[in-house]
Amino acid sequence: MIVSLAEMAPGQTGIVISLEGGHGMMRRLAAMGIRRGAAVTKTSSQPFRGPISVQVGNTEVALGFGLARRVMVEVPG
Amino acid sequence: MKRILLMGNPNVGKSVVFSRLTGVDVIVSNYPGTTVEFIKGRMKLSGEVAEVIDVPGTYTLGPTTPAEQVATDMMAEGDVIINVVDATNLERNLNLTLQLLNSGKPVVVALNMWDSAQHKGIEIALAKLEKRLGVPVVPTVAPSGEGIGQLVARLEEATTGSIQFDEERRWSVLGGIVEEVQTVTHRHHTLLERLADLSLKPETGIPLAIVAGLVAFALIRVIGEGLIGLVFNPLFDHLWLPVVSGLSAILQPETFWHELLVGRLIDGQIDWVESMGLLTTGLYVPLAMVLPYIFAFYLVLGLVEDIGYLPRLGVLVDTIMHRLGMHGLSIIPMLLGLGCNIPGVLATRILETQRQRFRAAILMSICVPCMAQLAVIVALLGPYGVRGLAPLFIMLAVLWVVLSLGFKYLLPGETPEMFTEIPPYRTPYLPAVAQKLWMRVRQFIREAVPFVLLGVGLVNILYVLNIIQVLGRWLEPVLTSVLGLPPEAVGALLIGFLRKDVAVGMLAPLGLSVKQLVVACVVLTVYFPCAATFAVLLREFGLRRMAKAALLMTVVALGVGGLLNLVL
Question: Selecting from 2.30.30.90, 3.40.109.10, 2.30.40.10, 3.40.50.300, what CATH number does the domain A2-74 have?
């Protein structure tokens, strides 16, 4: 199933399949390890469309909700 | 002179390596963006002096953010690059390494946090990594200095590396290297990692944040009051009082030198707060009233910073902050401003846009009183308990919210979304915490105490020259009708441009009611930053913006002061 990082449930792990954004945004996400093929685990989400956090490799990254909606991941089920 | 650049991702310990190499003390913390401007130092390198530059952290060399642009520009001026790499985040860090190698500058890699990597079950085959990159790779543990000697010894071997690749294939090359050199053994979550998770999840994180805030506040209060009651008051009362009393007898009260050095006697006695002599109030305010709180605040802040809590707090408050037109990380300059507004202004550089920075800095300098000022406010209003302190803090908090919303509509523009690395929790390395505390306390003693003395001296001169009395008469209509303050309060407002703590102290002998004290303390907080803070604001934001800000501050001070005068 393909969902965005924003929709993923905390604790869930998925593989990044696409980043829907401009070149600059892709570069910044990639530099933090969020790029196609990377395994990411969602660690938290704040209420009211607040930022979410994901673990990618040994790095934990916090992303705003809007940004998280543009990162698509394949999750089991 | 050879120029050595320290480069690497944010929060990998570049500044610690820098201190180790140059002996120059710098503030280091556990969050990305502690170093906001490049710092220079010197070291001996094979008999010659070389310049070392601590470049703010960057994830890539592309100009994706202004900070990264700065780092990229600075690279052109370096001769050798020490690339500090976080061994616990090899892939992300080597991404920058590959870009640095592609730039054609000679590089040495410092594989920092080597000890943490081993604790986390990460093994890195050093020889293989060195071979793949073609540059020296030295494992280091910067806080303890492990590996730094070897790093210096191998600086001469710095080369441009042997690795060749197309920019497009960087990620796959990187993946190949990491796979080849790194083995990760699975292990259980540590207590710190569990705590880290809990402090970010809203259902546990928000209660934890509230508890942490209360504990921090209580600790600062207990340590500050404890130091004052057990150490500084006895010192002043038993050791210093006999000295200045003797001096008072020699100089004779109401002579010029007595007024300047000892000050006025209150009921025939020296009063540390009210006498206003250089050797009485001039020393008592900074050393016995303010310093204990500065010490307590920076001790607690240093621990919180080094554990790595601040970015998590930034994430927790981000939703609310965005509603107010700010980025969650704006909370960091606000908290630092509580110690002293100057580092608060500088910390706004972690924000991405100039507009964001300006808003946060102005909001902080209006609504956030510094610890020096707070210490004296607490001494003055504390005895009245909640009735004295609650209106002040509530007013400042409400003002903070109202001004944020005002800025949101008056200075519209996009607030960038949260996008930040959250560092792992680390057990604070106590010698480092102690050193940082000492640096901040020393800075207060060196930079604030002379200004306090200047302020107290100026008070005396202004009184002798009748300036305060004349200005008081002039401004009486505004002071009395709008703010409900006596004309003598103009002295405090005047000195407040220089030092807020002295200014608040000047209210003590005026015999004000609680209400008048609250109004005066709020107005003193809001109406203008102290001279030192204003100078930094001016440097960061320029005259035009600051002229507007100054106008805003005056209007807000009169408005808020007048409002409090009406409702209290």
Answer: 2.30.30.90
